[in-house]
Amino acid sequence: MGTAVKTRRLTDGQVETFKREGFLIVTEPIFPEGKFQRLKAHFEEKLERLPAEVRPEQMDVPHFTDPALFEWLLADEVLDLVEPILGPDIALWSSHFICKPRGNGKRVPWHEDSAYWGQALAPMQVVTVWLAIDPSTTANGCMYVVPRTHDDGYSDYVPVDSSQNVFNREITPSKMRDKLAVPCELQPNQASLHDGKLIHGSPANTSHLRRCGYTMRYMPASAKFNSDQLGALHQVYLARGRDRAGNQYADPSKAYPELARYRELSGKKLH
Description:
There is one protein chain. It contains seven helices and 15 strands. It is of the alpha+beta class. The protein has a single domain, classed as Sandwich (Jelly Rolls). The strands form four sheets. Strands 1, 2, 3, 6, 11, 13 and 15 form a seven-stranded antiparallel β-sheet that branches.
């Protein structure tokens, strides 16, 4: 578990920008270079072992079966980024390697993360740290966000072709404001932060460069995780401070392969 420290990585101005716009770009390196390179090497090993039938965009909740990832997920370098927004009591909500291979990386349709989580959190307050493993630019399918769209989080959705898209549904065109979208271009070891209710998405990667990011998602430990909403599909971890909501937390030193198998068999994708 991360140890609470007084380091504050965001200024008051940055916190205000995040709250107003729903996102923030952090250009300073998130991890010391050696620690970042260990994460990248760890990811490359996981990618190499990925079954041929599994798309690299779909490496969801890898920490359920790979406790080594908690070296980065519970690191002070990351928790110090989200504490100014969430407060001192923090839980890990989820994580996801989303790797778009060069040439045929799938599009991420316009969505709000919260729409995939329903009423699983009360209140719905999640901050995602989108850490760039590779360069993420307009050329290779970087994420785009629509600023100031984090007031709702539960738009109407329509089906889309899952052979071309990472998810099988998208915000209905009548509700979209994609002309206002801005790109989140990042170099390796930089990150963007976004609110779980913000509208965002990314185009397909048809370039000759791979685009991989690691999304690390955090909630305040004062938010109640309604496990009944997700059945046996999900669990959370106390990252810093104290529980404030009576949540049950998983053990970061343990792997939970049975949970990963159940998610796979259920066919449900929680993002």
